[in-house]
Amino acid sequence: MKIDLEPVLAIQEVDLAIRDLAVEKEKAPERLNALEALLSEREAELVVLDERRRELQRKKTEIEDELELDQIRHGKSQAKLTSIKTNREYQALLKEIDEIKKTNKAREDEILAILEEIDGIAAQMDEKRKMSEETRKERDAEKRRLHGLLAEIDEKIASLQKERDEKAASVRKDILARYDFLRQKRGGLAVVEVRQSICTGCNMNIPPQLYNELLRNDKVLFCPTCQRIIYTRSEAIQED
Known about the structure:
Elements: H1 6-27, H2 30-80, H3 87-168, H4 173-185, E1 191-195, E2 198-199, H5 208-216, E3 221-222, E4 229-231, H6 234-239
Parallel strand pairs: 1-4
Antiparallel strand pairs: 1-2, 3-4
């Protein structure tokens, strides 16, 4: 009785197609994941900038409060000048007023520097918001594309699985069971051709006696090296 492995080869072809689709499905979200990561990164940068802006605003308010208090002190000191009776006290008060002026000038300069930095941060935040919005739109578009792609892949897999089940119904259960076992162990390739006495699965030579049995094609044979199911085609026999 001749062994016909064509139905098993047909099943293997379907299984390989299903495997390829499964790999495609697994890799499909990569771009979406990258966009999600980029969006999170940009939103995190916005949070950091906003925290810095708030910190500067608090610091500016503190300095303005100190400046206001010293301006009050300055006014009081100025008013006291007219009532000073001794030159020593007058000079001491002038020195105090001068120190207040220097301190306030330094505070005013610091406030200006803070305002400049706040303006710079505001500009950065505007740019980051635009970039985030662009990334968000791109992410949303990728989500829609991915949803359609995954639905299409699932539909193809379901169709192929139905085709496989139909083909499997015509294969001997023992051969199918061995095929399924080998398929899981050998990366999806369980049935391979022997060409010029070489197994195309592992590229090892088939012993002459085994090759002669293979030519008779009256039973299922396996490569002694990789254990895959082996076969040879009539044209290959003629070449030999």
